[in-house]
Amino acid sequence: MATIDGVGRDGIHAADDILDAARDIVLERGVSGATTRAIADAAGAPSGSIYHRFGSRDGLLAQMWIRAIRRSQRVFLDALAAHEDPREAAVAAALSVFDFARDCRKDAQIASLFRREDLMREAPADLAETLRTLNDPVVRAMRRLGAAIAGASAPLDTVVLAVIDLPYGAVRRHLVRGHAPPQVLRPALESAVRAVLQSVTA
Fold it and tell me: What percentage of the chain has pLDDT greater than the value 90?
């Protein structure tokens, strides 16, 4: 099966068109409405191209979710890397989750719609390793951040609460309802993140 990472430049564009169509249909009609025929028609592509590129409908939906997760991860990791001070990096990363939900709402909705464990049960075997290791870059980055803020031997849970749990909790209920979180929540989220980080001592 050809994947997003394994096709040429022209193929990447065609694959993204198909993934965009699948994303829009899932958000508009639900997963059950995202049939191979509906996706192909919306993308203006023959059904055979979906099977050629993704192997199956389950493979397509898994790739759609993987793409959304990778896009959100890039924003998150770039925000972390933009600050030398670890606490400011933590705040920036937390706020990047909120900003991604506003700037890339559809991808943020898709990212929150599926669970990795569910996709691993349904997706083709050749995607199992990709799904299994998908969060590794963020896990490694969070461990480094936690050590920088709280010390290598300190529990990571409080830093994860500030940088992951708070922002995802703030945006998820809005995404589930089909709209972006209101901008007015951003300063409140920043204050909450800083308050939690303030409780962490190295």
Answer: 72
The string of pLDDT tens digits covering residues 49-106 is 888 889 889 999 999 999 999 999 999 999 999 999 999 999 999 999 999 999 999 9
- The whole-angstrom separation of Cα 112 and Cα 148 is 29
Q: Where are the domains of the chain?
A: 1-55, 68-198
Whole-structure pTM value: 0.88
* 47-77 b/e (C-beta count within 10 Å ≥ 16 → b): eebbbebbbebebbbbbbbbbbbbbbbebbb
Angle between helices 105-113 and 9-29 (to 10 degrees): 70
**What's the fold here for domain 1-55?**
Arc Repressor Mutant, subunit A (1.10.10)
Q: Using an 8 Å Cβ cutoff, are 196 and 158 in contact?
A: yes
